[in-house]
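Continuing from the previous page...

OK, I double-checked the sequence for Glucose-methanol-choline oxidoreductase N-terminal domain-containing protein against my notes and this is the correct one:
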Amino acid sequence: MIPQLKHCVTGLILHLVFLSGALATPSFRGQPLTDESQLLATYDYVIIGAGVSGLTVANRLSENPNLDILVIEAGEFDKNEDYIVIPGLAGGAIGTIYDWNLTYATNSDINNRTLSIPQGKAVGGSSLLNRMVFDRGSSADYNRWKKLGNPGWGWTNLLPYFKKSEKFTAPADSIVDEWNISYDPSVHGTRGHVQSSYSPWIWPSTKHFIRAIASLGVRFPRDGASGDAVGGYFVPHNQDPASVSRSDAASAYWDTAYNRPKLHLITGRKATRLISKATRNGPIVTGVEIAISAQSSRKIVHVVREVILAAGAIHTPQILQLSGIGDPATLSRLNIPSVANVPGVGRNFQDHLYVPVVFSFDFPLTSTNLTSNSTFAAESLSLYHTKGTGPYADATGDFLTFLPARNFTTKAHSLRATTLRQGSDTYLEPDTPLGVRRGYSAQHTLLANGLVAADEAQIEILWADGTFVVGLEHPLSRGSVRLASSDPFAPPLAAPAYLRNPIDIQILVEAIKYIREIARTSSLTPFNPVELVPGAQVNSDGALEAYVRGAADTLFHPAGTCSVGQYALGGVVNQDFRVYNVGRLRVVDASVFPMLPATHIQSSVYAVAEKAAAAIMSSWKD
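Thanks. Re-ran it with the corrected sequence; updated structure tokens here:
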């Protein structure tokens, strides 16, 4: 980590630990099963993972009172700690017991650095860890999914499910008046389980950033949630407007269903493999093996209808591979017998990454005051608890900027031409199966053409009082998730192949140059900007590339490893989320995304999970 940033982050962590230790209050939620002896011999559905997607599907399926449903979660319930509940402390759960504490495999393209990849290990999953941004991508992003041969997966198909998950509250008149926030009520849901509302307080330097990008011609759509998500706009958070606290998957989808007598949840158990049997029509899944630890005994839970994998883009392919479902050539190296030949399992791995560009500005009030001024921090905390406003009521990320290439570089057409000249499989892993190569070829063409499109964002700029977080939204690089061993308690080898394709680097280099233009606008120069990272002396393309390789890090959006799509093109699930070549098995989490949308993916995972629940329920009529 860059020294200046590491110092700031360390101070923030100490601040979080102090607050949560002093102010944490116990959580009250419906209790899960306390012992394996309480498990039924057989369930209709077994859901692996109690995160965003798993709890969404469990809630919807359990609306049917005749179904026995079990959710298996490796983590536990949170204890309502301040670093989870209070918006201004969002992100504080990273690195705690609620995080799997995984790292990505080292990669020479990022100087062999070891990068942490936070993933939720708790009831609520990563919705306890994230920064509470509740936005959506542009319609073009989701229409790409449909263009890849997935009917029913375009923007208009998904919008009803975005709305179904959401309980939207419009911003207060005072916030609208002060910040000129616009929104379109027609694209938001009002009867969903996830609270969606705007911060009641916003850091004042945001106004100067908005004026700066306006002077550079950035557009301001009415509401990014409408599918018009290119430009600069205010976004809601998954935040309860009454309590001004986090609305996570546990509070949204578990607390509203736990009293259904046939819905069971068992925590502290890892799904170690799927049990299957051969039939005349091919293998079918008949159960799930679970265990508390590598040393503990294993127990098998039997299933009548389906097993639903909702363990996330890293653990879902791990479980499939441990169960003999994947590429036989890869599984044979670990002496795992092949149950179903599905070569796409674990492939097509992608994740948003970012680089920071850090300036100092002479702003009178910034978020650093919370860690440098104990009096200000105490007054702010009191304001939060008594009035529900002030710095601790703000999770940051209130105003987002997603820009097409034409906004930040004059090289959009040359970047497209260079991309099209590439062999689409040039930068894929050497052992990538043929079908996956063919599937990525179609993605590669869409990604190339997106570089000159006006309705597809290539970068995100997230403003934080002088730190510009520059996210790469449509990486061309693709990696994989593979087993490190046949031990289910050993973390898998997760390798997103950051920056393997040089186009990804060139986009970020151009974006850094654009950030410097923003800092030079008349809206920001009165505050005496001084570039700290990477530093004004780092100005050649070669030097900027070296900086990007040494600074790039994850935005926590892993996806794609069990992609929806045609089997012949590397797809793992069909349009109804069913895994190819094996019966009674579906995948419903972010691993089914064929391509990342330009957005923070939380609300997209909820929407896709709602779509999955609808697909499962529609099968009851067949």
